[in-house]
Design a protein that fits this description.
By secondary structure, this protein is mainly β. The chain is built from 6 helices and 20 strands.
Length: about 325
């Protein structure tokens, strides 16, 4: 006679604690995985040899446009994509923006129906998220975790221009090389981020889908590039004097530590040491606050600024110029 261990007791109408979690992840995987492509992007090295970069991309329109990371595409004009059902197709690059690490591609062949783009500003720390991508060339890989933190910053560079990608999503869903350009989704399958980096120690980062990234995506679709404005200044957050803080309710401003000679900031009369309080009537508490205003519609348009210079409030009008494009 063989002894058997008793199995877990099941009461009709109840579930094991992980069953609901598992159903969420499997339903997201079933819905999103077919819409995430594995990318192969040819790269020419300095020695003339070609290599292949791997990454992921997400179908986001009915007519075959895909969203991925700019660093996955690099300077490549074309490459190959493969879907989970074995379908392959060439793609061509519509536009890249290294300063947001976003790129738009178009498949030269049929694609699955698109994902639904969500809104990252609605995320909460601790919320369940699912990552779908192609890490290490392993197509259709799904990992799950939570939103570990919000509001992170990630530096991005294009030539000599450096920009901070703000409001980056941090997650503990496992990410590896090749996940870049893949989807980060909520429990209902809405894509709220494009996975972009592995921070190490079980932490990954994703570029958020929000109002700023939607504007960037729309510009890439329409023009193939992003036009940005610039003032030509560098600043660091600094506290407002107590009296001014009490009067305005604003706690910090942007202390100007450098003004580029001949740039719009210099022509407007801004000086090192000025404390920038507002731009276009919006509080300026960080470099990101000013950066959010420096998109195409700011180029050539008067921008009212208020600074604290010594003990005096000074109103200044600056006219942002277009940021030169560098490879």
């Amino acid at each position: 006679m063989t002894d058997t261990l008793p199995g877990p007791e099941h009461t009709p109408g109840t579930e094991a604690p992980l069953d609901a979690y598992s159903r969420i992840v499997t339903s997201v995987a079933a819905a999103v995985t077919p819409r995430v492509a594995a990318l192969q992007v040819p790269r020419r090295g300095r020695d003339g040899w070609f290599s292949t970069a791997l990454g992921s991309a997400v179908v986001f329109t009915e007519d075959g446009f895909l969203l991925t990371n700019a660093h996955v595409v690099g300077h490549a004009d074309a490459g190959t994509l493969a879907f989970a059902d074995g379908t392959t197709a060439p793609f061509h690059t519509i536009g890249t923006d290294p300063l947001s690490d976003l790129a738009v591609l178009r498949a030269d062949g049929p694609t699955p129906s698109p994902v639904t783009l969500g809104e990252a500003t609605a995320l909460r720390v601790g919320q369940l998220v699912v990552a779908v991508g192609n890490p290490l060339g392993l197509a259709g890989t799904v990992t799950a975790g939570v939103v570990s933190a919000l509001g992170r910053s990630l530096p991005a560079r294009a030539g000599s221009a450096v920009r901070i990608i703000d409001d980056v999503i941090q997650t503990d869903a496992a990410l590896n090389p090749g996940n870049s350009g893949g989807a980060l989704t909520t429990a209902d399958g809405e894509v709220v981020g494009i996975t972009t980096a592995v921070a190490g120690n079980g932490l990954g980062l994703a570029v958020p889908i929000n109002a700023t990234s939607r504007r960037i995506i729309a510009a890439l679709l329409g023009d193939g590039r992003i036009r940005r404005a610039y003032l030509g200044l560098a600043g660091v957050p600094a506290p407002l004097p107590p009296v001014l803080r009490e009067r305005t309710g604003q706690r910090t401003g942007l202390r100007i530590v450098e003004v580029v000679p001949g740039a719009p900031a210099a022509r407007s009369g801004l000086c090192e040491g000025d404390l920038l309080l507002t731009a276009a009537a919006e509080p300026m508490g960080s470099a990101q606050s000013l950066q959010r205003l420096m998109l195409a519609d700011a180029i050539g348009r008067p921008l009212p600024l208020t600074v604290l210079r010594g003990e005096a409030l000074v109103d200044v009008i600056a006219v942002p110029a277009e940021l030169p494009v560098e490879d």
